[in-house]
Design goal:
This protein has 32 helices and 20 strands. It has 882 residues and is α/β, with parallel strands linked by helices. α2 packs antiparallel against α12 and α6 packs across α7. InterPro entries: Inosine/uridine_hydrolase_dom, Ribo_hydro-like.
């Protein structure tokens, strides 16, 4: 092979820089401006780092916008982008994510649509269905691993000052408009097209500034090389995706034609392809010819001379080590990084023959994007652009190509023939002729290495390794090398000589109120409460990767001894058969993705990065002992599951002892415990449940499932997993209920903020005060935050659960209740009186509100069981000096 450039001396760096400037000057051209719209999947940041390494006299990488309806979740994705840019010394690059705008019923696109939903399902908010996104796995091997980058993001990337902050974060559309308005630019898209399509539809006057669009996605003449039976296999081998145009390994039985980026919003992809702007497409046709081969992998392992090379290789290795079968080297391709190489090669050759490219063979092909299925002009409830509208949205033609059946999910019955063959084509980049076709420059295959003696048989393999290992514009440091005295420390308390209180498990969905409750529980004397474990679920307000914030809170409080178990990401019976990582969002679609929803929960309203960094974190490390196909390098770091942590807690308590549980979210984890452990009811002393709404029976007070208007009387924790709630309510457990109308009494932000404002208070009290001040301020500034006081009420369960009844003056009454779980969203999750009086529940009837505020503040202000290390800034100071 040609030798990879490893030049590292200052003189060499200077020479290369001068040559680059000279070339640019000779040609008299300004650097090519680039904006990247990305879903921040693993291969996306390979592309980002590749672009950051290119000569700045040739390419001016100006802005990044984040897809929020694909492989990552907004809060985790944007902060990873900020960390990559900080490592690379590029805090000048603008970053846009989200936005609270919507699309009206008549098709008017309002400012700052966040792209959380495909255009067809976009209403006025950020909550909504997952017709396309359900094809993407949620847990391990899917969004959880991508959000955390297998756990490598927090262990490797340094953390700078930039971070998501509510109402201060530039939105996607703001960054697109500002960057494109400034002059000629090329746009790269390596994810779903929602953001860019909305921009084009709303700002047609700015199209003139876009010189070219480079797209990774689609499959024109592609034939999937994965899922094929080996040549000498037995007749029992059943081919899977083998030969399909598309690559959707979770949905090929209903749609064998589409590629993930185009399927996730076909209408958006159509708008981009048909925009009239020149397009270069790097589809599966080309990327299928450039897999991560074993030879490339081994060569990369030997060439990691920069921090960015190390980060990419570590990520690639974890992808390989956690791959579901033994076909990684023929199944994982250089998707987005290859597109970046092809695009920048084309841009270098703009003054030459149009099809000349260093890395790919190119061809012009007439294509379109299929957005609906024939017959056209039908109205079957699947197509929100037409159904129920006298005039279709966006003035679409009534019997045109967009007017057919639109796939409603990966198990849409319309998409299956009688023999089980999939017929839906939503997202298919079909080669056609005629008036609806667009002439597009298409990469058809990766070029072979010009050096035929090399073990690397593709030209781009060599180019990629050369660029990513260049000493120019290299990363400055990683998380540990930034600090000369970095040291990983675990804090565990010494309880010798203390008589520990009742054994407690806290079950949370990681909403902001849950974190306030957790800090409070950690302040209650251990002689009263022995918090043994925390169970988290991704079925509520936060995504599963937010478990890292739980670890950080525990580290701050010196409680790295407390086990944290990760629960299911789906409600009971909501995942699809034969694939526990794929399912519907029938109930979870009630939670907003944007402001006041998962974006803010995942980042703790922008304050999570102020917490000290725990040495514990989610990782995708795994072991064959737990069913993994192979051991990773550090299987001992594997993230324990909720049921495993429950089992360990049961085994740790003394014979005859029992466990008390406090639940602050959906009852998924508790229901799974009951269903998997037949002895659980005899081990559980009592369960305190924050949730349920029963007062409406008398005064018609509404529930809080505000994004499902048809369900007026349910409370979210019950609604988000009604079958789990029914399972728990129907059990023999001794249950105390803290219902919604009691939580609503705690709604005075100023009262609790004032009580936390003492001088010389504790770090945890200061953090809680900052968090509450932020919630209160946001509530006053923007309609998306109008319900922030609901999270204040979430501390009530912890206080009632642990508090002295005398100052609280809490009273209870016994009521006979049941939960509706019939599969109808208009009534599921409602708690009603059980006229059969099958089971009685102790229900909180009243309490002293002022005492509740006082108790919370007094515990957090106490110096007992206070924070060991107060913030990330304090950690940095410790790591920066001996």
């Amino acid at each position: 092979m040609r030798k990879i450039c490893l030049c590292s001396t200052p003189l060499c760096t200077l020479i290369i820089a001068v040559i680059g400037i000279a070339i640019s000057t000779v040609h008299g051209a300004s650097p090519h401006r680039i904006l990247l719209d990305t879903d921040v999947d693993t291969d996306d940041f390979f592309a980002i780092l590749y672009l950051l390494k290119l000569n700045r006299s040739e390419f001016h990488f100006q802005a990044i916008t984040v897809n929020t309806n694909s492989w990552t979740n907004a809060g985790h994705a944007v902060n990873q982008i900020y960390d990559i840019l900080y490592m690379m010394g590029r805090d000048d690059i603008a970053v846009g994510v989200g936005g609270e705008g919507g699309i009206s019923e008549n098709g008017t696109i309002l400012p700052n649509v966040g792209g959380y939903l495909p255009i067809i399902d976009q209403g006025r908010g950020t909550a909504g269905p997952c017709r396309y996104r359900q094809a993407i796995p949620i847990g391990s091997g899917g969004r959880l691993d991508i959000d955390a980058n297998f756990g490598l993001r927090r262990s490797f990337l340094p953390q700078g000052r930039r971070r998501y902050s509510p109402l201060r974060q530039p939105t996607t559309q703001q960054v697109l408009i500002k960057t494109i308005s400034e002059g000629p630019i090329s746009v790269f898209t390596t994810g779903v097209h929602t953001n860019f399509a909305l921009f084009l539809m709303s700002n047609p006057h700015l199209k003139k500034n876009i010189e070219h669009i480079y797209i990774m996605g689609g499959g024109v003449r592609s034939k999937n090389p994965t899922g094929c039976c080996p040549k000498n296999s037995s007749s029992s081998c059943q081919p899977q995706q083998c030969g399909d145009h598309g690559n959707m390994f979770t949905a090929f039985r209903s749609n064998p034609y589409a590629e993930f980026n185009f399927f996730s919003d076909p209408f958006a992809a159509y708008q981009v392809i048909h925009s009239g702007i020149p397009v270069t497409l790097v589809p599966l046709d080309a990327t299928n010819t450039i897999p991560i081969t074993q030879q490339f992998f081994e060569m990369f392992e030997k060439n990691q001379d920069t921090y960015e090379a190390q980060y990419i290789f570590k990520s690639l290795k974890m992808a390989r080590d956690t791959w579901f079968d033994d076909q990684f080297f023929t199944s994982y391709f250089m998707w987005d990084s290859f597109m970046s190489g092809v695009a920048t090669s084309s841009m270098r050759n703009t003054d030459k023959e149009n099809l000349e490219n260093e890395f790919a063979e190119m061809e012009y092909i007439n294509i379109t994007v299929i957005t609906s299925n024939e017959p056209y002009g039908i109205s079957d409830g699947s197509n929100a652009l037409f159904d129920g509208h006298k005039i279709p949205k966006f003035d679409l033609r009534k019997n045109g190509v967009h007017s057919g059946h639109v796939q409603t999910g990966i198990h849409d019955p319309f998409c299956f023939r009688g023999n089980g063959t999939g017929i839906c084509k939503d997202g298919y980049t079909e080669e056609i002729s005629g008036p609806d076709s667009v002439r597009v420059r298409v990469a058809t295959r990766a070029k072979p290495n010009r050096d035929n003696t090399s073990t690397l048989d593709r030209e781009y393999y060599v180019g990629f390794l050369d660029v990513i290992n260049r000493p120019q514009q290299r990363g400055r440091f990683n998380f540990t090398s930034e600090f000369p005295y970095y040291k990983e420390v675990f804090y565990k308390p010494d309880f010798n000589g203390k008589k520990l209180g009742k054994s407690v498990v806290f079950d949370m969905d990681m909403s902001v109120g849950d974190f306030l409750a957790l800090i409070y529980l950690l302040k209650v004397p251990v002689e009263e409460i022995n918090l043994k474990a925390i169970l988290v679920t991704g079925t509520g307000w936060a995504n599963a990767a937010t478990i890292d914030v739980v670890y950080d809170v525990l580290h701050m409080m010196g409680r790295d001894d407390i086990a944290v178990g990760l629960g299911d990401s789906f409600d009971l019976n909501q995942f699809y058969p034969n694939h526990s990582n794929i399912g519907d969002c029938k109930y979870s679609e009630a939670i907003p993705h944007g402001s006041g929803g998962r974006l803010d929960s995942d980042t703790l309203y922008g304050l999570a990065r102020d917490l000290p960094r725990s040495p514990r974190r989610y990782t995708a490390e795994n072991s064959i002992d737990f069913g993994a196909p192979r051991n990773t390098d550090f299987p001992q770091l594997r993230q324990p599951l909720a049921l495993e942590v429950w089992k360990s807690v049961v085994e740790s308590i003394d014979h005859g002892s029992k466990i008390t549980i406090l639940t602050n979210g959906p009852l998924t984890n508790l229901a799974n415990i009951l269903l998997s452990d037949t002895n659980a009811s005899s081990i559980i002393q009592e369960v305190f449940i924050l949730g349920g709404h029963i007062e409406y029976m008398n005064n018609k007070e509404k529930g809080n499932v505000i994004n499902i208007p048809s369900n007026e009387y349910a409370e979210l924790n019950m609604f988000l997993d009604p079958l789990a709630a029914k399972t728990v309510f129907d059990s023999s457990l001794n249950i105390t209920l803290i219902p919604l109308h009691m939580q609503r009494k705690l709604n005075a932000f100023p009262e609790i903020i004032k009580r936390l404002g003492k001088k010389n208070t504790t770090p945890e009290a200061l953090f809680a005060q900052r968090l509450l001040k932020r919630l209160h301020s946001l509530q006053q500034k923007h309609h998306a935050y109008r319900n922030m006081d609901a999270f204040l009420g979430e501390i009530l369960g912890a206080i009632i659960f642990s508090g002295d009844k005398k100052p609280l003056n809490s009273t209870f009454q016994v009521e006979h209740l049941r939960v509706i779980a019939e599969g109808r969203t208009q009534e599921d999750g409602q708690v009603i009186v059980d006229t059969r009086k099958t089971k009685g529940f102790k229900v909180l009837e009243d309490f002293n509100i002022v005492s509740c505020y006082n108790i919370f503040a007094e515990h957090l202000d106490s110096r007992e069981q206070s924070a060991i290390i107060g913030s990330f800034d304090e950690q940095k100071r410790l790591w920066s000096s001996p």
